[in-house]
Design goal:
Elements (H helix, E strand, L loop, with lengths): L1 E5 L3 H13 L3 E5 L10 H4 L9 E4 L5 E4 L1 H12 L7 H31 L5 H22 L11 H10 L13 H11 L2 H6 L14 H22 L3
Parallel strand pairs: 1-2
Antiparallel strand pairs: 1-3, 3-4
Length: about 240
């Protein structure tokens, strides 16, 4: 049994999706990020970095794993699925996983902060992070032109990248002119396990269909977390 500590974010959804894909039994522990539950001592004992997601594998002596990429690798290796066993195949999956961890996630995350959450609209910062997100999307689109999935068969690399790319409109970046990326997004969205995974836990907002009032409420809550985090970093 896996204990999953998570919230309705792209990084959180990576893990709920992979657990559903692997049909592993798990217990959901949804953390309220607005209340800083991820900073409480009991959770810091699981993840010293105070971020979601994290898991505890009860079948492996209560073994804790944090960082979403590390969790994906652990679960793939635990089950022997969603990542090839041969060195080259494994490397291809890890390359595209690192592409997401080092590029897509950080750039889209910063685009979200400056485009949606930061109290001041700093246009050069918005342009910078939306532009870099867009560049990374073009890389994905180019690769997917001749490949159904990112690294051979469907893998944790697809799950990791898809969990972020699917939220592209929230970052203010469109993919309408990237047909291969759009095809891949829709193909993965159609998977039953993916549809279940993105509802664990349910989000308080549908980022694609929310009205202006819902968007502002959600953004205000996120803005408060950004400002609180900034104050703590500065020792306020």
């Amino acid at each position: 049994m896996i204990d999953l500590y998570t919230a309705a974010t792209p990084n959180g959804h990576k893990i709920s999706i992979v657990l559903e894909e692997l049909a592993l039994p798990y217990t959901l522990h949804a953390l309220d990020l607005s209340k800083n539950e991820q900073k409480q001592d009991w959770f810091l004992a699981i993840n010293p970095n105070g971020r979601i997601p994290a898991i505890v594998d009860r079948d492996a002596g209560d073994f804790a794993v944090f960082e979403s990429g590390a969790i994906l690798i652990y679960l793939a290796e635990k089950t022997g699925r969603l990542m090839p066993a041969d060195a080259k195949g494994r490397s291809r999956v890890l390359q595209w996983l690192m592409f997401q961890m080092g590029g897509v996630g950080p750039m889209m995350g910063q685009a979200n902060v400056f485009y949606r959450y930061f109290p001041e609209k700093i246009q050069p910062a918005i342009d910078r992070y939306q532009g870099e997100s867009r560049r990374l999307f073009r890389v994905l689109d180019g690769h997917l032109k001749n490949n159904e999935y990112l690294a051979g068969d469907y893998s944790i690399a697809d799950i990791a990248n898809w969990a972020w790319v699917r939220t592209h409109r929230w970052s203010g970046v469109e993919i309408d002119d990237l047909p291969h990326l759009a095809r891949w997004v829709q193909a993965i969205r159609a998977r039953p396990a993916v549809q279940k995974g993105i509802e664990v836990p349910p989000s308080t907002i549908n980022l694609g269909k929310a009205d202006d009032k819902e968007v502002e409420r959600f953004s205000a809550e996120a803005r408060k977390m950004v400002e609180t985090g900034q104050s703590r970093r500065e020792g306020v």
